[in-house]
Amino acid sequence: MVGNFVGILFDGVAYGALLFLISIGLAITLGLMNFINLAHGAFAMFGGYVCVLVMTRAGVPFFVALGAAFVAGGALGAVLERLLYRRVYTRTHLDQVLFTIGLTFMAIASASYLFGPGQQPVRMPAYLTGQVRLLGIDVGAYRLFLIGVVAVITLLLSWLVERTRFGAQVRAAVDNRTAAEGLGIDVARVFSVTFALGSALAALGGGLAIDVLGLDPSFPLKYMVYFLLVVAVGGPRTIRGPLIAALILGVFDVAGKYYVPEVGSFVIYALMVTMLVLFPNGLMGKRT
Amino acid sequence: MKGLSDGRWNRYEIAFWMVPVVAYFALPNYRTFGSQILVAGLFALSLDLILGYARIVSLGHAAFFGLGAYTAGLLAHHGWGEPLSGLVAGAVVAALAGSLASLLIVRGQDLTRLIVTLGVGLMLYEIANRAALITGGVDGLPDVSMRPLLGMFAFGINGKTAYWYSFAVLFIVFCLTRRLVNSPFGLSLRGVREGEKRMPAIGVSVRRKLVIVYTIGAGIAGIAGALLAQTTQFVGIDVLGFARSADVLIMLVLGGAGYLYGGLIGAAIFMILQDQLSSLSAAYWQFWLGLLLVALVLFARGGVLPALIALHRHLRGFGSPLRRKVEKT
Questions:
Q1: For chain A, which residues lie within 8 Å of any Cβ of chain B, measuring from their own Cβ?
Q2: pTM of the entire structure?
């Protein structure tokens, strides 16, 4: 029972780590530009398809495919930001919602046109399948790998935000855009770079998610509420907030589906309602 | 913009309401489709109260549509096939759910509202899906047999009763809604829309207004859902789906939010477009829909109805920049 509980906790943490990786870009765009990007999941889906494509067509190893997804996602984000997103930053939230739902619909239709409506199969390298023994309990090797990858990325991100000049610019722009611009920070450029980085991380997350969440054209809509929830509960202004929120969500979702399968996803909705009532401005948000 | 409306009907409005009547006689083969447009228009009208007048962006308005549909459908399924009481029941259940949801919705900002509306919609879909013994699950609820309307008009295969029933319900609800937005309550709603921060200064409780309007909007959505269940004599689980929430939002912004008529015009355009484009290539309707949304936001802000109004003003010389300058001096 205890081993079981630890196993579920472990799976939940792995799931939450994945949610965090995909959602962090959404948190950045929201915190920086107050922009609600419902198409964020489409970048994750894009990364997933890039992964599958280069693995099956070009036969490259899984790690190289993940790298390709990261780069392609970043490039796509940079191009779309330049061509489309930039035009709607200053619009109302309603316009942003409509615009990004439109993009999501186009992404879904394109994906089912190009790849068909079914789930994409992916063959993991042998060393990432099966179980490994860790501190006396059996855990999934892939889950362990996921947690490791996200831990490294989180440390890198924290270093980027807290220790580098670019990170200082991002923090300044989030805290007070006008003052940051007054100090000579090119906020538009800062935003382009962070948008591309957020898209790249989402695409990487999409590639990593194939084995856990699956990959089919409905991906952006199916998980949209999870990504939004991570950001809303965690608050968009920090890295720590969304990380904690994602881990809580992941653990409760996995535990709920394991212990009370008949109510399934209601656990997560009940949790969502409670969290939003208790923390209307997010876990790390300012109290009003 | 014009000031206080005196609530009188102008000639364009009267002409507008003649269109469904003319369509009934001119296009006898499209009566079933026509009543679906009328139902969609009613649904869009309910969202207009919430989005156009209260500025609450909802991604889960189908929750209330579906509640109304299942309420009326289940009543008829279990033998209570009287249409009007079924309609009222659908409205009451949806309004109750709406008032509960509104308590959460008025607390948060746009993002919180998006998630709560989306989450409530998904949750209800999941309930309908799991409770297949009661709702029929993904197969839908069959055997929704209706008794004749008012004891006289049977719901036949030719769609006559369904059409006039939908039209009458839409028109009556529209008149009540029109009355509501021209009332002092409607004025204070507009005040909330234009300056949410200033309204408390003149003693208006913004939250209270939002709770009331959200409840009414949910109730009307419930009527629309019940109407669909009764006229099609079937309830599919898609009445609660995300696609329906997204579609109604698109209909409303396509027509123009905040005018009451925008939703009706948008519903008609949307349904006809969908009918035509899906018959061309059913799978890629979604792509064109997405493109339409993106284009709408980028190039045609406000929707069809505001564009028509601007055109009309322009043609009559009002509102053209030159004229405005003359008026000022």
A1: 30, 36, 84, 87-88, 91, 93-95, 97-99, 101-110, 112-113, 221, 224-225, 228-229, 231-232, 262, 264-266, 269, 272-273, 276-277, 280-281
A2: 0.86
